[in-house]
Structures are given as C-alpha cells and as structure tokens.
Write a structure and sequence with these properties.
Radius of gyration of chain B: 24 Å
Largest interface: A-B, 91 and 98 residues
Radius of gyration of chain A: 23 Å
Number of domains of chain B: 2
Shape of chain B: globular
Helix content of chain B: 10-25%
Distance between the termini of chain A: 51 Å
Largest sheet of chain B: 7 strands, mixed
Number of strands of chain A: 24
Shape of chain A: globular
Largest sheet of chain A: 8 strands, mixed
Structural class of chain B: alpha+beta
Number of helices of chain B: 10
Structural class of chain A: alpha+beta
Strand content of chain A: 35-45%
Distance between the termini of chain B: 50 Å
Strand content of chain B: 35-45%
Number of strands of chain B: 22
Oligomer: heterodimer
C-alpha cells in the first residue's frame, strides 16, 4: 500500500537557507512470480517508498534519503543534508549552480494496454506452470523455470526553481530457462540470456501461445546442446544475434562513454575508460557502419523516459555516427565539469541513492543487410545467441563473452550446432572490425535489469536494441 | 530501530488468523556516504532506511512481501494490515508449495555491538586533510546497520553493529593504482593516517616503468584480496546444494567425480568472529563453524531448509540463496617475507577484477588483473604489469597447481552497498600457484 503524500507541500515547508532544494519521491513495487521444477518458488510483492532531499550549499550538493515522508521528517532530512553539504563544500570537487538542475514541468507514462490487475495471481501461476511443462521436454532437463516480474514505479520530482516532473512506469521482466545435464556436460538455454527479455509493457506482453512455443524451443535447444560439438578455437568471423549484441553494446560502448567514468569518479569501483575527453568528435570508435544512439524515446524499450532525475528533458542523440564518437553519456553535472556534449542520463536507482551518469536505451541503429546476406557472406565462422558470461577490464578494453548457443557457418550456410561459444577482443579494434549490420528485420529490443555502478552501489535498468551484426577476425574458443 | 521492529511485529502478528504462520525479517541502516575523486568531495549524503520482509504460510502456500517502514506508527500499521490481507487472499489463488519451511519457535538472540565509531559531523575533517596532495578516489561508508528476525511462534533475533569503511584507490601519474580499504568499528585517527602512509608507499612502486607481459602461463602469487574474489565466486553457481542439484554448479566435479583440490586448501563457513549474525532470514541459526572443504576434499555444501526439503538433504540453515556469509580459508606456512623469493620469476597479483564463469562445470573463471600487479624476476619486483585477462580453472590454482598458502590471513570486508550496506567479509591468506593462464 502506498502512503499518499503531497510532495509540493513538503517542499514548501523546507526552511533551510540553501541555494536550491529538490525533492524526489520514489515508489516502486516488484511482483515476481516464478515456477521452478513444477512448483512455485516465488510469489511476492516487494515495495519501497521514500524521498531524497537534495540541497545546494556553497556550490556543493548534499542529500538525505529518508522513508519518513511526514513534514517533520522532510524538514529534518533537509537540515541534515544542508549540514552535510556545508561541511563538504570546503573540499568540493566542483562548485555547481542550479544550472545543473534545469527547470522543467512534465509527465510521462510508459505505454501499456493491460494493467497488472488484468491477470490474477492464479492465472499467472498457471501460465508459468504451463510454460515449465513445455520447457521440460526430456528427463535430461534436470531443472527448468519460468519467471515473470511486474514492476510499477512512480517518480515525482519537484524543486525550488520550479521543476515538477512526474513519471509512471509499468515494466515486465520475463524469463524461461532449461538446464540439460549429461554427466559433466551441463547446458542452459534461456529466453534472451541473463534476463534480457525486459520491456516497458503491460500484461498484453504475456502472450500465452508465444510463451509456450518459446518454452518448447528453449527446452529442445538445451537438449540439442548436449550432443553438440565444442566450439572451434581460432580467429574467424562471428555473427552476433541481437540478444548478445545487447551486452556487447552495454559493456564496450555504454559504460566506456559514461562521462563520470571518463572524469574518474568510478576509478575505485567500476573503473575508468579508454575514451579520453579529447576523443569526442575525433575517435574512430568503429567502422563506418556503426551508428549508436542514446534513445529514451523508443516506445516499450526498457529505459525510456521523458526526464532524467535532475529534471533534464530526455531526447534522442547520436553518440557515434558513421563510426566517429560524437557525444558522451553525461548529464548536466558532467557536461558542466567536462565541457563534453551530453544527454539526459542523470539517474538514480531509487530514493536512497543520488543520481549519477547512467545508460538509458543505447541502441545500435539498423543497417541494410538481410539475415541471409550476412550469413551468406561468411566462408568460415560462427553464429552466436544469448549471453551467459561477461567480463571486461576497468578501462573497457579487453572483453570476453560467453554465449548459450551457437552454429557453425560454413561456405555461407548455418550448419552444425556448437556448444560453449566464447569470444574475446579489445573494444576499439573489435568495433572497427564490424563488417555488416543487419536491417530492421533483424533488429531485436532487449535490456538488462541489473546494471551495477556507482559508490554507493546502484542497480539500474537499461535498454539495448540491435540488429544482427558480423565482425571479422575475432578470437573464438569453446569450453574445457 | 529495535523498538521500531518490535512494535511493528506486534501489530503485524495481531492481524494473523488461526493456521497462518508468519516470519518477519528486518534490514535497516543509518548511513553516511562521502564519495571522493581527486581527493575532493564529489557527492555526500545520508541515508536512513528500514525495510520489513514478510513470509506467510497459509493454506499450504508461501506468500512473501516487503515494504519500507516510514517511522510513522499509524502509516506503517495500516501498510502492514493491507499487506497481510494481500498475502491472505493470494494464498487462496497461487499454487501449492510442497516444500514449505515451517517456522520454529525457539532460539532467540540479541547482539548489539557498541563501538566508538566516526561521528558523521567529524568525518570530513577526519578523512580529507590526510589525503591532500595525492590522487585519491573512493568512498566512505559509515554508520549503523541493523538486522532483525522474528516469527509468529515467538522467536526473536536482533543484531546491531556500527562500522566504517573507507574503500579507496590511489592513482599514480602513469594511471597505475593501489587499492586500500580502511575499515573497522572504532575510529583511530593515528591508525588511519598510518594505513594511508603505507598505501602511499606502495604507490611509489607503481611509478616504476610498466612491464609488458605476454599471454601464457606464469607462476603467480595472489594476495588475500585476490583470493577472496575467487572464493566469492563459490557463492554463485558453486557451493550451493541447489545449484549442484539443478546442474549449474562448478562443484559438480567434486561432488560427482570425487575430484579433490590441493591438500593445502581448506575452508569453512565460520561465524566465530561475530561480524555477521548467525541467524538467516527464516530465523534459523547456523552452527558456529561448517567445514566446506578440508584438505582439498568437499565436506559440505550450503543447504537451506527449502533445498533440504526438496532434495531430501539435511539443512545446515544456509540463507535461501545458499551463499557464503562468513567464509574463512585456513592459512598455510608461506611467510610473506619469502613470497618474492618463492615466485622467483612470475606474477605478484594484489587484486583481480570482474570475474565470471567462462566454463562453469570445469571450474574455469575469467577476469582481469587490477591495481598493484607486478612482474617479478630473480625474486624482485621489476615493475607493474599492463592489464591482463586470465582464464583458468580453480581446479588448477586451488588444486594441482597450488604450491603454497600464506601463513597469515587477512579480513577482506564486504564493501558492497547495493540496496543496503552489507556486513561481514572474507578471511583468507594469499596463495602461490605454480601456473596461471593469461589469455589476452
């Protein structure tokens, strides 16, 4: 149950002599339901509700995140935030003004047709059980699960310089997973890899026929992998499906372009970046086929919104155009600190964390090659789907990814299924080896609910859309 | 906070009907965060948080819920009532749970650790002056943390601690870095400044000319912080009994094929330090020590009561996620002063970064070198290395390739703050491996 408050009245009641005051209320509920191995393992409803009071004193921001939404609670929080900011201001890294909290008034509601009440707990349990039954195609499937998590979020941000932004989100995370085992040969197949299937959508997203068909396919592919050949080792072409491209974009473009990383804020945790401030407008990040956008306007993508948590209006911008780096992922604070053109990406995970530079939807724009054109162009290589392992260094250079499912490509045709497909490379040369980009028909929209960053740590939702892509001369290898 | 938890618990239990069982768990904190970059303050603030998690068993079903406690008794009581009603209704709709964990009504505990910590208002002046003149980046996390548990049969647990953690990196002019974590419960300004001096001294080593290392296999010393990262991987598709049963554990070879690690490798889940509560979110209390691997042999996995019910095992009251809460790896005999001599030619790795399973059934883990990592020749440090990717199996470096284990353990605090500040950490020594594979 949500405790309804009047956030504007609470802001009006704040009396500290700060240069600027902001109040950001967040209510969020997660309703996960999961069936594993034929029995329910999760039927929950988890909510969080609180507000972050932020004040600007002598050019230094200070904050207090509190669940006490009474007038006295907010007043106390403002006073404590004020004291924090004042004490810190003599060591401020940068002296800000309220320019970095621009005035905006507006609303956003994510698109949906059917709300959470349109499907009962019973109906959803039965749908997930049916999906499990379709995943369990053989006794060699030792474990299988189906999961739906419905997320409802409301942000309301008001500030002393007149901002009033309210945003409502209805989101879904959906996953199917089957693990097949034969001795030490363990193979797991999922619906898009690592919770990749996540969208802003209503319950219309839970299409029964589609779910059951996908569950059957996932179970069959897990079995198929048990008998598959090991992935060959060597340097060869690799065709990457959108549900793996998603993480390739995330790790080797998204994080590398966060301006707070480039400015060194993350050096003690997530790391720095191989991108330097002077690279913007010059660096050949990838081949000329590479066009990457920050696009919070894509309907139903996981991280669409109208304003960031500093009140900046969110708009589509090119980050990389025809392979050249043109813009960074930096909100107003980073833009002022660095002078680098940025975007509206100053985001916080909840009411108890301060905003920092985050990805939203970072998409690789489609090219003009069909699926057949791409596969047909490869003499010897592999095709891979769905992430299962990811790792990249603190400068976002040396990456290694593992995928769930692969196929050999021989003489322009997909041939044998292969297991344990892995590949590794270095971000900048890798993106310059991008040889073909699929057209809109090959495009897939995915995302991740678990992007971690920041001190204190924050997990945030991001979206990634990508077509099928071909990279040449990549180090490929298998398991054991 | 304790009273807050007790009061809301009473209200919640008063809503229950006959044949309904309820377990409550509580997570709270009063924290200060000061984020630093280039020895200046990037962001600073305070967070008060208090969440109550509810697990109801009714009609043969398990329903769960949670909400944030506002501190306003009326608001919280109303919220709790609504949540109970929601779970009660849902217990008539959802599928039956054949593996119910029925709460028990005994074994209450109360542990409050008072300390002389760092006052919030003193933190800036305590931390900042000593770091001027060096490129310092990191975070101070400071304040009280609370964990509670109770159930409708009268069991009650409370754990309260106050701690600070200054987790930081010092950055040399060539961008090489040194990692430090000054953490504890009682603040001592002299100890802090001494610790920082040691870090600055290490930083001088990073100014040596970097050494370009090629891919290949090298004799390697791992400092305790690096070993703790490897051990943390055991909590993710490793030591969990459910993971083994569900075919997604790297421990399958030990369980099913009797593969052993080195006789020099022993580790346990050890709560004797008292840094984390022994009770789990179901209120069950673990033994003070549980042997996990003894002299290379898998002795126990972590088994939650649900897993025990499902797979006909005996619970050792692991947390439902079956992860390590207080891991301890036993020391060996290699004195730290002999480490460089024993390496002779190879790698000295202080920290590693971004680990992931690259071949889980075979125990293969990939990741990267980070911070103070050096090339050693003739038993002397030659210089810091370039960042290298590794990809090797723990069955090798904790197995046949394990030459020596360090004679001293270190406590590596858990500095994670996702959602809330974590408590505890890993206690382990360093290790010397005969071979370790660098791949990129």
């Amino acid at each position: 149950m949500r405790n309804e408050i009047n956030i504007k009245s609470l802001l009006d009641a704040v009396t500290v002599p700060a240069d600027w005051v902001g109040l950001r209320e967040v209510y969020e509920s997660n309703t996960p339901r999961m069936i594993r191995d034929g029995v329910p393992v999760s039927n929950g409803h988890y909510s969080t509700h609180g507000a972050m009071v932020e004040v600007l004193v002598n050019g230094q921001f200070g904050y207090f995140g509190t669940p006490d939404l009474s007038q006295s609670g907010i007043e106390l929080a403002a006073k404590k935030a004020y004291d924090q900011a004042k004490a810190a201001s003599k060591y401020a890294l940068h002296h800000f003004t309220d320019e970095v909290r621009p005035k905006n008034i507006g609303r956003y509601s994510s698109p949906f047709e059917k709300d959470l009440r349109s499907i009962s707990a019973k109906e959803l349990n039965i749908l997930l059980l049916d999906a499990y039954n379709n995943l369990k195609v053989s006794d060699k499937i030792v474990s299988a699960s189906s999961l739906a998590n419905v997320i409802q979020t409301n942000f309301h941000y008001v500030s002393s310089n007149g901002s009033d932004v309210e945003q409502d989100f209805l989101m879904l995370e959906f996953d199917l997973s089957a693990t097949a085992v034969d001795g030490q040969n363990q193979q797991t197949r999922t619906f898009g890899g690592m919770r990749g299937t996540c969208r802003q959508a209503g319950m219309e997203f839970l299409d029964q026929m589609e779910i059951l068909a996908q569950a059957n396919k996932i179970g069959e592919q897990a079995l198929e992998l048990l008998d598959a050949d090991e992935t060959p080792t060597g340097e060869m072409d690799i065709v990457i499906a959108p549900d793996q491209m998603m993480l390739q974009i995330h790790e080797s473009i998204g994080h590398a372009l966060e301006v707070d990383r480039i400015l060194g804020d993350e050096r003690n945790y997530a790391g720095w970046s191989f991108v330097k401030p002077e690279d913007f407008g010059k660096l050949q990040y990838g081949s000329k086929l590479m066009n990457v956008t920050f696009d919070p306007t894509v309907s139903s993508e996981f991280a669409s919104y109208a304003y960031d948590d500093g009140g900046l209006k969110a708009e589509r911008e090119y980050l990389i155009k025809e392979g050249i780096l043109v813009r960074g992922l930096g909100g107003k604070e980073s833009q002022v600190r660095s002078g680098i053109d940025g975007v509206a990406n100053f985001r916080a995970s909840s009411w108890n964390r301060a905003p920092i530079d985050r990805m939203a939807n970072i998409n690789l724009e489609p090219g003009d090659s069909s699926f057949e054109d791409i596969i047909g162009s490869v003499e010897k290589g592999i095709y891979v789907e769905s992430n299962r392992s990811w790792s990249i260094d603190d400068y976002r250079n040396k990456f290694q990814f593992g995928c769930e499912y692969g196929k050999l490509i021989e003489n322009g045709k997909l041939t044998k299924t292969i297991k344990n497909p892995n590949y590794r490379g270095i971000s900048n040369p890798f993106w310059n080896s991008l040889k073909m980009v699929g057209n809109g028909d090959t495009n897939g929209i995915y995302g991740t609910p678990n992007c971690g960053k920041g001190e204190p740590n924050q997990v945030i939702r991001v979206g990634h859309a990508s077509p099928l892509c071909l990279f040449e001369n990549v180090q490929v290898f298998g398991g054991a | 906070m304790e009273n807050k938890f007790k009061n809301i618990s009473k209200v919640i239990y008063s809503h229950l009907k006959k044949d309904e069982l309820l377990t409550l768990s509580f997570t709270g904190e009063e924290s200060q965060f000061i984020r630093l970059n280039n020895a200046k303050i990037r962001q600073t603030g305070l967070v008060n948080d208090a969440d109550i998690h509810m697990k109801m068993i009714a009609n043969g079903r398990t329903c769960t819920g949670s909400f944030t406690l506002s501190g306003n008794d009326d608001v919280d009581a109303k919220g709790a009532g609504v949540e109970i009603e929601r779970m009660r209704l849902e217990s008539t709709q959802i599928l039956e749970d054949p593996y119910l964990i029925i709460p028990k009504g005994s074994g209450s505990s109360r542990e409050i650790k008072n300390s002389n910590g760092l006052n919030f208002e003193d933190a800036v002046d305590a931390i900042l002056p000593a770091i001027q003149g060096v490129d310092f980046v990191g975070i101070l996390s400071n304040g009280k943390m609370y964990r509670g548990n109770s159930n409708s049969l009268g069991q009650e647990h409370w754990f309260e601690t106050e701690s600070f953690s200054l987790d930081y990196s010092l950055v040399a002019t060539n961008h090489q870095m040194v990692k430090g974590t000054f953490a504890g419960t009682d603040w001592d300004q002299n100890e802090y400044e001494g610790y920082l001096k040691q870090s600055k001294k290490k930083l001088e080593l990073m100014e040596l000319s970097p050494v370009k290392v090629e891919t290949g296999n090298y004799k390697t010393w791992f400092e305790p912080a690096a070993v703790s990262d490897f051990i943390s991987m055991f909590s993710w598709n490793g030591i969990s009994e459910a993971s083994i049963q569900q075919g997604c554990s790297g421990f399958g070879k030990m369980r099913n094929d009797n593969v052993r690690l080195s006789s020099k490798f022993s580790m346990s889940e050890d709560f004797s330090s008292g840094l984390v509560p022994k009770f789990n979110s179901d209120g069950e209390v673990s033994a003070e020590e549980l042997k996990i691997i003894s002299s290379g042999e898998l002795k126990n996995t972590l088994i939650s009561s649900r897993t025990a019910n499902e797979y006909n095992r005996t619970s050792n009251f692991a947390e439902s996620g079956e992860y390590l809460r207080s891991p301890f790896m036993e020391p060996g005999s290699l004195d730290h002063s002999d480490v460089l001599k024993q390496i002779d030619k190879g790698l000295y790795l202080s920290n590693i970064h971004y680990l992931n399973w690259s071949d889980n059934p075979n125990g293969r883990i990939t990741g990267l070198t980070r911070y103070a990592c050096f090339w050693v020749e003739n038993g002397e440090i030659i210089g810091p290395i370039n960042t290298m990717r590794f990809d090797d199996s723990f069955y090798n470096y904790f197995g046949d390739n394990l030459l020596e284990v360090g004679s001293k353990t270190e406590f590596i605090p858990n500095t994670s703050t996702y959602g809330n500040r974590e408590i505890g950490g890993t206690t382990c020594p360093g290790i010397l491996a005969d071979s370790f594979a660098l791949t990129l």
